[in-house]
Amino acid sequence: MTDRTTYVQIRHAQKAFGTLEVLKDISLNVERGQIVAIIGPSGSGKSTLLRAINDLDPLTSGEIWLDGVQVNKSLPFRQYEKHINEMRQQIGMVFQHFNLFPHMTARGNVTMAPKMLKGLSDKEADALAEEQLDKVGMLERIDYYPSQLSGGQKQRVAIARALAMKPKLMLFDEATSALDPELVDEVNQVMKKLAEEHMTMIIVTHEMDFAAAVCDRVLFMDQGVVVEEGPPSVVFKNPEKERTRAFLRKHLETAS
Amino acid sequence: MGLDFSVIPGYIDIVLLGCLWTIAITVAAALLSFFGGIFFAVIALYAPAIIRLPFRLFEWVFMGTPLLLQLFLIYFGLVQIGVDLPAFVAGVIGLGLHFAVYNSELIQTAILSVDKGQMEAARTVGLSRGQALRKVVVPQAVRAVIPPIGNNMIALLKDSALVSVIGVSELTLSAQRAIGATYRPFEFYILAAAFYYVINLCMEWVQRRIERRIALSR
Ligand SMILES: Nc1ncnc2c1ncn2[C@@H]1O[C@H](COP(=O)(O)OP(=O)(O)O)[C@@H](O)[C@H]1O
Ligand SMILES: [Mg+2]
């Protein structure tokens, strides 16, 4: 049945919003330490797929597995809430618009969940905040509020916030799309660093160069299906499907 | 007979004491209305229907009837069912709940306008809905409505004069007592007005300080 050795598995994911089918039977396996990029036109279901993985948008049918545990298993309501909260602690997510908590400093953003959910003492939490913010190059801004930070800095704090829960998997939904061009690189550098540390990641992105540089595998999605999937060298340089080629061509035109 | 403010020193102690009562009632009722407002807002938005619907009725009573009537009801009415509250406590509860309902309206709107991404981000790190509301959504909502809540608190100060009707010797009633003894209404009403004005200024000062403190965290 289920091959439990694969770290992340999406099995026959289907999702409809009302009558609108957004995901049509998508399956995906990600090995531990692997980095997968998802590309595709706007509205193709990339965000929905990512949000299905941590059940922000529950699937209509299909299964999500992480490290041998089914994320979206069917349980009575209360038990499911407990289960999903535990699973979400293991799945970090980074949003296009950061979604930092504006009423907390960088330190507060990073330490809030570990303190509440893992019972860290203030001292342990501070050490954790320093460690994680240092990792994303934001240690000097530890006591700044989000309103005092640039977009790139906010996104780096948001990454630190996700990392503070020591997740098994990180999901990035267009983490650099809302940033001014000159701020993109500082966020990409942090993601590269995570890649070097073999963090398992699924990255929705419009940046083909970045995807080609850091990802092991690329998925091209269109209209709720995976049109093409393979190593970046193939998908970007030598795609099999005409739809992929058309998308890349169009993308190249608009990018240049 | 002209104005003669020289009568004031003889009764200043009564009026000052009344002033202290007004401050005590206002502060206690303001705190009740603030935390009660948060509590009511969360109930109105998230409680199951079995709690929410009776709560609506309660809300309607407090918004749709005169505060004066509410004070009578709490002080004189509750005695009949065996709840004999001291006038001060009855006054604080009446004023506090009345303004809690108004604060709750503000906070409800603010909660609904907190960006959906905030709840999502909180759920994503593993918080339950309740935890996310408490740590992330409600604090932001409350920060957003500090200025209008401040206005409600000023209105509360002014309405605190109403608790004189249940016999709390607050500022207005104390002034009246001094007038009863001296037949000098103008002087003592002016004095009371001056005290209200000073308390008002202090409240505005506190509000500005709070607003400045939270300016960055919004
Ligand atoms: N909450 C929702 N309710 C209804 N339709 C939605 C919702 N979220 C997304 N959609 C629709 O699903 C489709 C896929 O959206 P999305 O996953 O955001 O695409 P992408 O991230 O690839 O741009 C779009 O047509 C979008 O309008
Ligand atoms: Mg998207």
Strand-helix topology:
The complex is a heterodimer of chains A (256) and B (218).
Chain A: E1 8-17, E2 20-30, E3 35-39, H1 46-53, E4 61-66, E5 69-70, H2 77-89, E6 91-94, H3 106-118, H4 122-135, H5 151-163, E7 169-173, H6 181-196, E8 200-204, H7 208-214, E9 217-222, E10 225-230, H8 232-237, H9 242-255
Parallel strand pairs in A: 3-8, 3-9, 6-7, 7-8
Antiparallel strand pairs in A: 1-2, 1-4, 4-5, 9-10
Helix pairs in contact in A: 3-4, 3-5, 4-5, 5-6
Chain B: H1 8-46, H2 49-64, H3 67-80, H4 87-112, H5 116-124, H6 129-144, H7 146-159, H8 171-182, H9 185-214
The complex binds adenosine-5'-diphosphate and magnesium ion (MG).
Could you walk me through the main structural features you see in this protein, from its secondary elements to its overall organization?
- The complex is a heterodimer of chains A (256) and B (218).
- Chain A has helices at 46-53, 77-89, 106-118, 122-135, 151-163, 181-196, 208-214, 232-237, 242-255; strands spanning 8-17, 20-30, 35-39, 61-66, 69-70, 91-94, 169-173, 200-204, 217-222, 225-230.
- Chain A is α/β, with parallel strands linked by helices and 256 residues long.
- In chain A, helix 3 (106-118) crosses helix 4 and helix 5 (151-163) runs parallel beside helix 6 (181-196).
- Chain B has 218 residues and is an all-alpha fold.
- Chain B has one domain: Orthogonal Bundle (MetI-like fold), CATH 1.10.3720.
- Chain B has helices at residues 8-46, 49-64, 67-80, 87-112, 116-124, 129-144, 146-159, 171-182, 185-214.
- Chain B is flat and about 75 Å long.
- At the A-B interface, helix 2, strand 6, helix 3 and helix 5 of A face helix 5 and helix 6 of B.
- The structure holds adenosine-5'-diphosphate and magnesium ion.
**General shape of chain A:** globular
Q: How would a crystallographer describe the biggest sheet of chain B?
A: none
Number of helices of chain A: 9
- The helicity of chain B comes to over 70%
Order of helical and strand elements of chain B: HHHHHHHHH
Q: Mean pLDDT of chain A, rounded to whole units?
A: 95
Distinct small molecules: adenosine-5'-diphosphate, magnesium ion
Radius of gyration of chain B: 21 Å
What separation lies between the terminal Cα atoms of chain B? 57 Å
- Figure out the total of helices of chain B: 9
How much of the sequence lies in strands of chain A comes to 15-25%
As for the CATH topology of chain B, it is: MetI-like fold
Query: Under the CATH scheme, which architecture of chain B would be assigned?
Result: Orthogonal Bundle
